[in-house]
Amino acid sequence: MTRSGRDYLEALRDGREVWLDGERVKDVTSHTAFRNTAASIARLYDLAHDSEHRDVLVSGGVHRAFAVPRSYEDLVARRAAYKVWAESSFGFLGRTPDYMAGGAAAFAAVPQIFTTDSFDGAANAVAYHRRLAESDLYCSFTITNPASGTGDDDLVVRVVTEKDGGIVVRGAKMIGTGAVFSDEVIVGTIEPLAADDVDHALCFSIPTDTPGLKFVSRTSYEAQARGVFDNPLSSRFDENDALLVCEDVFVPWERVLTYRNVEATAAMWWQTPAYLHFVHQAATRFWTKLEFLAGLAILMTRTSGAYELPPVTQAVGRLLGMVAQAKAFVLGAEASYEQVDGGRGGVAPGTEISFAQRIMAGELYPRAVQEIKQLAGGSIIQLPASAEDLLHPDLGPVVGKYLRSPGASAEDRIKLLKLAWDALGSEFAARHEQYERFYHGAPHVYLTMQTWAGGAENCESLAQACLDGYGLETGK
């Protein structure tokens, strides 16, 4: 069954070890660096638990992202659920609970991938999916190495000893987006491993409050925010990113998914539909985020009175074209769906278009931001320091006189432009631009994978057909 936002927040008060600015955070639900974002995630749970969106978000008593899709219609229904949650944060919360829920469903769709000569994790993968779905848990992941790992055996997570009941692991992983807000965290690797690197070939999922598990948070933009009026996005939707450190952490065998098997440790992401489900959620969120940015551009230009100018109209049209591109990738991936394991594992969005979405998103987002910055001009620079200037009995009238526009009061104009700055020019905004560039990995990885995804042979054969259709003897 789905849980309420209150249930979710209560679960976060478990003594997890989160560090920020040299201080151990006692409670992420009340700390100024995390509390508003935790509340925003809690709202997602409330939308599924008891709201007018429940029928869209829930099927069979669990969030739709946990269900193994069996048809095109199931993919469409899943996307509708993704869209509701994405719109709740205007696309700025990326790794919400539905992200890894789709991955868990993918593992359960083809559990045989986890059966190897060295370890059989099939039952554990099915139990992992069931545990998350039935308890409506939020699972994050850390599947990237902090460095090459050479020269220091404890740099990257590895097993240091085996016990009757499980394994003891030591080392670090990154980038734990949303990890400080999650109930569980998957620790694994998506990076290629050498064929003989079995020491680092493992994946497991453990509760966030597991003894010996540390999360070292990056700078909190929420903590730096002056308030919702002045920082409407960063004050509420800073999902955070954290370095995960394991200091002799005990992992029970039943929580281990892969162990000492390089092929299975990679296959769990690429030979199950996990990555395709990830892209489905991410592409829906990206589409929503571009909708928000385009809407922001429209509001700014209407307020300034420039909306009807031909160059501005063209710029807005270009942004709306980007929105349509993002939407088309989602719909196209659904329409080109593929059977998983001959249909026994249900269906997944089409690989070719899903992989292509990664290229589009990483290249399109910076262009969209730049387009809106051009439309904003200097208006987003000359703003009052905070809402206090507007509220001051002497200064407020001055600000109100000189910062209004023909289409809006000073308060409304400043409110809009502060939202624009938080989305386009703040440190929070810079993180999001970098985040979208590398959301699906490094370009040299996903561009190469696009070549493998399919379509190259058809393109080549079409060009070859043209060449084969004529020759020297054909004449002029």
Characterise the protein shown here.
This protein has 17 helices and 14 strands. With 476 residues, the protein is of the alpha+beta class. The chain has two domains: 5-270, Butyryl-CoA Dehydrogenase, subunit A, domain 2; 274-457, Butyryl-CoA Dehydrogenase, subunit A, domain 3 (Up-down Bundle), CATH 1.20.140. Strands 2-1-10-11-7-6 form a six-stranded mixed beta sheet, with no helix packed on it. A four-stranded mixed beta sheet has the order 5-8-9-12. A two-stranded antiparallel sheet has the order 3-4. The chain is globular and about 75 Å long. The mean pLDDT is 94.
Write a brief caption for the model:
With 476 residues, the protein is of the alpha+beta class. The chain is built from 17 helices and 14 strands.
Question: What tags apply to this protein structure?
Answer:
476 residues, alpha+beta, Butyryl-CoA Dehydrogenase, subunit A, domain 2, Butyryl-CoA Dehydrogenase, subunit A, domain 3, 2 domains, 6-stranded mixed sheet, 4-stranded mixed sheet, globular
Low-confidence stretches: none
- Our count of helices gives 17
CATH architecture of the largest domain: Beta Barrel
Number of domains: 2
Produce the secondary structure layout.
Layout: H1 5-12, E1 17-20, E2 23-25, H2 35-49, H3 54-57, E3 58-59, E4 62-63, H4 72-88, H5 97-109, H6 122-135, E5 139-142, E6 158-163, E7 166-173, E8 184-187, E9 202-207, E10 213-217, H7 221-224, E11 242-252, E12 256-259, H8 262-270, H9 274-304, H10 310-335, E13 338-339, E14 347-348, H11 351-376, H12 387-391, H13 395-402, H14 410-424, H15 427-437, H16 443-452, H17 456-468
Parallel strand pairs: 1-10, 5-8
Antiparallel strand pairs: 1-2, 3-4, 6-7, 7-11, 8-9, 9-12, 10-11, 13-14
Helix pairs in contact: 1-2, 4-9, 4-10, 5-6, 5-9, 9-10, 9-11, 9-14, 10-11, 11-16, 14-15
